[in-house]
Amino acid sequence: MKKPCKTNHPHFRILFGIGALLALMLLLPKGVLAQSGSATIKGSVVEKGDPRIPVEFATVQLLPAGLITTTDTKGNFSFDRVSPGRVEIVVQFLGMTPVDSTFTVQDGANLRLNFAMEYSSFRLTEVQVVAQGNKAGQATSSTITRQAMDHLRTVSVADVLQLLPGGQITNTNLMQAQVINIRSVQGLSTNSASNTDGAIRYNSLNAMNSLGTAIIIDGAPLSGNANLQAINPSISGNVETSGTNLSTSSPGINAGIDLRGLSVDNIESIEVIRGVASAAYGDLTSGAVIIQSKAGREPLKINFKTDPKVYSTAISKGLTLGENAGNLNLSADYTYGVNSITQSYLFFERTTAKALYSNRFGKLFSNTSLDLNYNKDTRKMNPDDVRSRVASSGSSLGFRVNTNGNFNNLDYGWLNNIKYTLSGSFANKKSHEESLLGNAMAGYSTNSTDGAVITNKPGQKVYDIHGNELTNIPQAEMGSFFTVLPNEYFSAYDIFGKEVNIFANVTANLSKKVGNVYNRIILGMDYKTDGNLGDGKVYDINNPPYRTLSADNSSPRPRKFSDIPFLHQFSAFAEENMIWEIGARELSLQAGLRYDLFNKKSILAPRINLGFSIIPHILSLKAAYGIQAKAPTALYFYPDNAYFDFVHYNSIERVGVPVEEQLLLGSTRVFHVENPNLKIASTRTYEVGFDLKINKMRFSVTAYDRSLQNGYRLGVDLDCYKLVPYTQYEIGENRPGQIPLLQEQNTYNIFVRYAKPMNTARAWDRGIEYDFNLGRFNGIRTAFVISGAYMRSTIWNGGYSYETIRNGNELERNIGVYEKGVEKMEFASFNTIIRATHNIPQIGFVVTLATQFTWLSTYDWYSFGNDTMFEKYISRIDGKVYDFNPAMKDDPEFSYLFSEINRKNDLRFKHETYFPTVIFNLSLTKEISNILRASFNVNNMFNSRPLYERKKSPGSYQQLNIPIYFGFELGITL
């Protein structure tokens, strides 16, 4: 009998409540919601220098009401219901400098406004080549324009992060995955008081920041939630991507979106939210990168970029299809990156193409796009590598369809506009790796059933001398066999993934002014689903991938990804954006609530951004508080099983044993590692700061404190150590021409260990960001911007840590268990970048000198709890957990563990703190007539690379600063 739906569940009540409120606004008669007092604004947008040429499809936004419209084919626009008071109009169009105008509207007025826009170029008096901050009372963010991207000669989205407060100037590197870490100092050390947990420390702990950074393109988030390209994560605990040339410290499949796959040449602007995001943005913990694609008329543009490691070309064109027919933007790029000129067998390729159609249909303005994307990491076999013969590749071929629109100027009481977004993507991924394996001898079974005991011949039964059957062959495993892998063999494997993502959103914007208070309310709902239809891990069963050496008796198994269920996420949000005019001062408030329901797990996320002008138009204070949440990915929600194979008897390798008498007897244990108690990860953020404006100068300071709770990692819990009885057999009775009868030789208890999804990743980030824009000094034609940040990050495993050192040649004894969170990794940095931008508008010349001071940088810095005494232990007798009495320290059962602990010295309390350094970086752009643009940049132009002597290893030195690096870009506009 089908169970009735429980509509009184709080999950459904919240979703229903927001949906009902939205429906109420749409269905009530106009008179019920009508507002008193309004004005009309009409106007036109034309090109500066020739008012006969209209700017069609320009976006016109009216603030603080949040009204949005677009110009028609004649450049006209209108707002029919405008609340009286001070309003701001922002006009934007592809390739043109935005227009921002503020004025006061009287009740009943009928205004006519005309705006003239000029094309963005390096011939303007003021060029925008730095990040622009936002207003107090909104989420802390920075916006990077197209002009800034051209001046920096960007190859990927990651290259623009240097413009953010606290951002570091780095050299372009396409040979490693590029992800975004917001407000976090990332470390690379994996030194650990726990020798078993160290291998999984970096990827699982540090990856949460980038995993929790949302990448949103044209209103829809990119998703890597269905990425499963890893060979054996439940044993290794590693979330590193398989089948690429990435180093072991590089982010992997659960570390966010790889930005190398995104071309910057079809992007109009990028906004990076570092603080408490609006409730409209979900599935994030660190921040969001909001990318706006080019849409509208644009001349043919061809770009060529080159530097010692990257070659790139891109082409784009915005076509007007005719009156009322809309615009079509076409773009494509090809990028090739190498590791070095001496390692040509290591390279990266990217090919992208995009078509975006935009048009206005009455009150609806919509964009529909198709993106095609191909990325490939390749490591060909090194001709000099005759020993291991390693080769690998990781490729992704996919497409993305997106349609989004805005119903504008809705004449319906409070309701002003309705936005929608519908997006779907597909990525066909393939990881391949091959090598000649050495020291590879191990037992391996093709069986996947827990408790099965089989031999080297499918279906063969084995008995002891008492007639008891020793084999246990499930019906499903009748064709399975057990083998011992040779000490050296050639192995190759593939991982086939077919990732599918669908996203839908609808948002209503409602606004009204009551007295001196502007109210703008947004109500919306999201739906997102992710799945993987790939064939998964595929390889020759006789030549499997290399086993995980840190886990004895472990073995990988093929897994078909299409058998894994899809992930589903429903979200609803409501937010009030209020501006209260208190005389000449303003109090701005953005207060929202977001509700996320993910596979029956839910979380509420309140968010507040507050701003108040102490001195009108000069000094504003700001504060924020918020909870932001990221749902688990498929790897965490549906992890691989953990497989272990044990050899009990083996005579197939003995000399002189006839073939018909050869026998290999082995068993398999299978452990399911799902965590039904897995919670949704979240961050709690506090912010406080101020904005000071003096004429054109702006000084902004923000202090933040962010704490990650329930972060995801593949880690080891107490129940991940399993005590498995193990029996060795010997010949009990020889039977000529047949396999022998066996008898017990020895019986042991053996610990096996695996990793499971856990919520024990913790991070605490705090710091102060500053951004001082001094404006342009016309006398010297130079603008100055000083930005930077002090950042302190602490990351740790909030679960238990373990001591599992063997006692000589004996099998594993008791497992020592340290207290939770026994060791924390500390990182700190303090940097300042002074950007001096000199431009000569008459000749289209711009040059920026960016001087980066690194005042403080530390790593390998740890703080410890009680790591000299166990809190518990796991018994070798019964596998159960017991409290540890310090008096047992000298017991032979435990003393060998402490002798290892005592060998640790006070070097662990030393931390590497680099001395201050400075590097000079130059970016130069010159426009040649209206057709050509040349950009050149050089990082660390004086190649300052001082040596630092490591405190933990005196006599060893490390070069500081990035090496000198330069590049050139040629842009052609036709």
Please tell me the total number of domains: 2
Return the CATH class of the largest domain: Mainly Beta
- Give the uncertain stretches in residue-range form: 1-9, 25-36, 187-203, 241-251
Distance between the termini: 69 Å
Question: How many E strands?
Answer: 52
| Beta strand % | over 45%
Radius of gyration: 31 Å
Tally of contiguous helical segments: 7
Q: Kindly report the average pLDDT value.
A: 87
Silhouette: elongated
Please identify which CATH superfamily of the largest domain we are dealing with. Answer: TonB-dependent receptor, beta-barrel domain
| CATH structural fold name of the largest domain | Maltoporin, Chain A
Q: CATH architecture of the largest domain, please?
A: Beta Barrel
Which range best describes the helical content: under 10%, 10-25%, 25-40%, 40-55%, 55-70% or over 70%? under 10%
